[in-house]
Amino acid sequence: MRILFFLHKIGPYHHARFTELAKNCELIAVEILPDSKEYDWQNIDTGVNYQRVQMKTNAHGQELKGSALLHEIRNLIDWYRPQAIITMGWSNRTYMAALYLAKKEKIPVFSMSDSTYNDVKRYPIMESIKSYIATSFDGFVTAGRRSENYLLKLGVSPEIIFKPFDVVDNSHFQVEGKRMLSFDYDSPYLLCISRYIPKKNLFTLIEAFHHYITLHPEEKTVLYIVGSGPLESALKARISKYTHHQIRLHPFVQYDELPSLYHHARGLILASTSDQWGLVVNEAMAAGLPVMVSNRCGCVDDLVIDGENGWVFEPSLEGIVTTLEKFFAQSPEKLREMGMKGQKIIQAYDLKDYKIAVLSMIDNARKATRKWSRFQKLIVFLRIFLS
Fold first, then answer.
1. Containing domain of residue 298, as a range?
2. Please, is 237 exposed, middle or buried when counting C-beta atoms within 10 Å of its C-beta (0-12, 13-18, 19+)?
3. pTM score of the predicted model
4. 261 in helix, strand or coil?
């Protein structure tokens, strides 16, 4: 079976999933924004595992639109003759063009989805339009309960929803791997691995950790906030006001150096005010760490059992401080026990589980032909031509 899989750009998480999926199919991964700088990933060498294709973009590195976009995707379909088409979500024009042409050619078309209802403010008219788009697909692989419930709310049939989507290569994080030369692994530290953007709630996290350290000056654990992004200068300015030096920014860490960072940490904290899932939670659990995760992160309903493998908290100053109190009250033995519990939970969210979900979704679509109304077709067509 030949699959065309459209996504923004291949990163290490996609590469791990694609390599596993390609064991059972011929996979062509189509990068629609190959020059994207959203993440500081190193270029991925796909090797012989699967094929990579990069789409043309406009002069500003953005997606094509309208007839030019349809022409590019038509050429891909004519050249590769896929038996299935998959999109990494359904918000981009290119994904809509792939959906439109797949329907026209009677090729089963699917999507990955980890959006949840509470990600952003929702408006009834927009949700109605999204419903027509979502119900055009022949199947979804979705992240967990929250994302599944959102699809159901949009009118997607439960029979065409499969899980899981948001997985990592657990085995990669179960061994220490490559160390960074300049990092102090021996002193106690907590991790927050995150892009430096507003929804990650880093200023509140910094203030909460500072508050905890002020109350407990005997605690010498350092909070490392690892990543990159537009808020870096503002975060440095905030941290520079504190004299205890126990909150530190650390540059973006590449995939092969992440396991060692997790293996020597005491735990992970993710304080987002909005997060569709939170893959760093998967990584930390695979590495055997207890996790502290905001209740706004989509993964908490599926991955975090409060008080057993970590804690779920309200991402406010008070909520974070209370959770830090709980974390630091535990003995090292108890934290290790919680980490081991997390490792057992995350076993159900591995690459093979993702592969089974994708292949089951495609196989399921062969059993029934889904109708596509003229209004659905019009909505998708307009999305291809409009900004």
1. 170-346
2. exposed
3. 0.94
4. helix
